Task: structure prediction
Amino acid sequence: MTSLEFYKYFFVVALLAAEALFVARMERRRFFPLRLAAALVVCVGAAAVYPVKSWSYTGWHVALMSVVLFSVTLCGIMFVFRISFKNAVFCASAAYTAQHLSYEIYKAVLMPFDIFVAGDMYGNEIFDISSFNGLSLIRILVCLNIYAGVYIAIYFILGKRIGANHELKIKSTLMLVLSVVILLVDVVLNAVTLYIGDGYNSVYDTVTVLYNCLCCLLVWYIQYSIINVKAVKDELETVSYLLRQSQAQYELKKEQIDLINIKCHDMKHRLAGIKTVGDLSDIEDIISVYDATVKTGNDVLDTILTEKSLVCRSKDIKLMCMADGSGLAFMNNADQYAMFGNIIDNAVEAVVRLEDKNKRYIDLNIRSVGVFVSIMAENYYEGELSFSPDGFPVTLKADKNSHGFGLKSVKYIAEKYGGNLSVKTSDGIFSVAILIPVKATEQ
Result:
């Protein structure tokens, strides 16, 4: 077995280990253990049957070998995991970049000792186990530590962000293709230039190592930007859409509540003049529900609190509110409606699940504190809450893509006015605290 024959096995194993960092938490297909075992056998088998002959020791052949084995592992990912081709390419190319960068750093570490790593790995010398010595052991340990270090680093930088969501969405296919092209061109050029050089040359190898490392970092930067920019852009688009909807909802709800109050107010006066039987007092009580308009000194807050009070009453929930809305005049109507609507809606979703009806209440406190407006909302909840990396609770609804933006919208609004939002849980109570400066943004 020559060094190149041994290297193709090492390459496949290292590539599979890197790919595991990106796909381990992806959705698995049925019969996952059997599929995984079959995929590993096929990948290692592909390395075994790939021909290495006397004519194989050229840059083009080595580059082709790397691309073919990479393609086999890519197919393995799609066979084992329920993942689209585009997402599989993203994960596999990111993993190949990790493997390639690890190899280049290994070369760079051994170059000061005049050790020609590329020649040892890609050469046609016979791999002789009898020549194994202390230096060989050191080189193996250095290699393993470098690969492990790079893999761990890329997992925390890129892989963990993918695994945390159990899914991956890439909007810019063009940027993904660009990153793959850069990687493959670098792999081919690296293999071709390896066989052009005549033995070991420190300057030549230093330049190629730096070039290869920069290409790998560029590929990672593009890939990181794809998912990072995509996530931020999608969230902003969703929040902006919700805010636009809030403006329309506020105007509609205000008209409806005003109309109901006028009609109910007139009806109460008519009933007061003709009330002759006990049943009419029951009707008056029902109408009083609609006539109980909340007065906070802020028309928008009055509208939203009146609306949500009716919702809470229908669900046997007590909405207890101590609110001075006069300090919120600097916020536009849609922002106020969206902020308090989302806060109360989230609380309603939590307390409506409680079996103990004594805990079905929402406490909302709005007051001015110096030059700040303080907003505090508390409610009971049951079960275990899971939090996303940005500190927000993960929605319990099945459609994760369409829900879970309530508190993010609230945070977006608070930060728009220079404020901040914090969320905490303690003893079964979920608390949302918002502090917004008034004078800094007063219009």
Notes: The chain has a mean pLDDT of 77.
